[in-house]
Write a structure and sequence with these properties.
The chain has about 325 residues and is mostly beta strands. About 0% of the residues lie in helices and about 45% in strands. It contains no helices and 23 strands. The strands form six sheets. A five-stranded antiparallel β-sheet has the order 1-22-21-20-19, with no helix packed on it.
Length: about 325
């Protein structure tokens, strides 16, 4: 029997048609941090994710690439896109489609050291980008390092990039003032070619508080909405911009506790927010949705509900749930 892990609310704006885990053959491995992009011309899908050599978290992960020609029903065998011995390589922003012949992979590497503690026990971060002009078959060498913040820099934003009326692009980004301290989030701008990142416009920053995992979406009325993870209380926050990201309102709390924020606007104008639920009683990936641009949010249930016996430590890389599988929702309909 096919396993059903989604537990969506009856009035949720999405319906899960089918779901399955990808790339489960062979030795147990940890597969995580996936990013997906569609090639508009032929409908092919590109997927990148990190894969370790074993089931435990270790500094041996390669960034893998897979392609689907049939809407996700089947996938080619994953191949390494970026790997450096002794490092955990990952998508530091993921796939950003600018055009079918210009898809960027914001990638990088870190070293994980659980002995140093903290919310993000990592060092040695590095981020750059690689480009494909032929649908993922060939990729450029990673470009120069991208550093927008004093220490950690990540172009975190599943919706990146966002075209602006003047031809520029807006990108969500986050970073730190030190190792695992002073996390703050905002947006940066580039030209239409995705080059020349500007100093970030900060949206969420406060002494003694940490803000990361940002995503941005353009609302039906033209404004931008940003939702950001908050580390201490784990209550996510949000802000709005009515001038294409140049200035933002003060942050305000959302009704949900989430990390790994993902925003998407449906054809109806409804905005959905998917996130790893930071409420210990709601383990898994939850969904909230709004029809008024974030003024009010409704609980849409869970896109993925973890098994009852799965280990879960909200806000920690020590979570062990489904370390040997890459979970993927094959089809979502609104």
């Amino acid at each position: 029997m096919e396993r059903r892990s989604a537990r969506l609310a009856p009035d949720a704006p999405l319906e899960v048609i089918a779901e399955r885990a990808l790339f489960t053959d062979g030795a147990p491995r940890r597969r995580s941090a996936a990013s997906l992009a569609r090639i508009e011309a032929d409908g092919a899908l590109l997927l990148v994710f990190s894969q370790t050599t074993g089931a435990t978290l270790a500094n041996d992960a390669a960034l893998m690439l897979a392609r689907s020609e049939d809407g996700g029903a089947t996938w080619a065998e994953p191949t390494p896109l970026y790997a450096v011995p002794g490092w955990f390589c990952l998508a530091m922003g993921g796939l950003a489609r600018m055009a079918d012949d210009d898809i960027r992979c914001i990638l990088g590497r870190i070293r994980i050291d659980l002995s140093i503690g903290g919310t993000e026990p990592m060092t040695g971060w590095y981020v750059a980008s690689s480009t494909t002009r032929d649908g993922g078959r060939n990729w450029s060498e990673p470009g120069p390092e991208i550093r927008l913040f004093p220490h950690w820099t990540e172009l975190y934003g599943a919706s990146n990039p966002h075209p602006l009326s003047d031809g520029r692009l807006l990108w969500a980004a986050m970073g730190t003032m030190g190792r695992d301290e002073g996390w703050h989030s905002g947006v940066t701008f580039t030209g239409a070619d995705g080059e020349g990142f500007t100093p970030p416009v900060v949206i969420a920053r406060e002494p003694g508080r940490d803000y990361s995992d940002i995503d941005v979406v353009r609302l039906a009325d033209g404004r931008f909405l940003a939702v950001v993870r908050e580390h201490v209380t784990r209550q996510s926050v949000q802000a709005w911009s009515s001038d294409e990201g140049r200035t933002w309102t003060p942050i305000a709390p959302t009704p949900f506790k989430g990390s790994n924020i993902k925003l998407h606007r449906l054809a109806s104008g409804t905005v959905i927010c998917a996130y790893r639920d930071e409420d210990p009683a709601r383990r898994g990936v939850s969904l909230s949705w709004t029809t008024d641009g974030g003024a009010t949010w409704r609980d849409g249930g869970r896109l993925y509900a973890a098994d009852e016996d799965a280990l879960h430590e909200p806000g920690s890389v020590r979570s062990e749930e489904h370390t040997s599988e890459l979970q993927s929702l094959r089809h979502l309909v609104c």
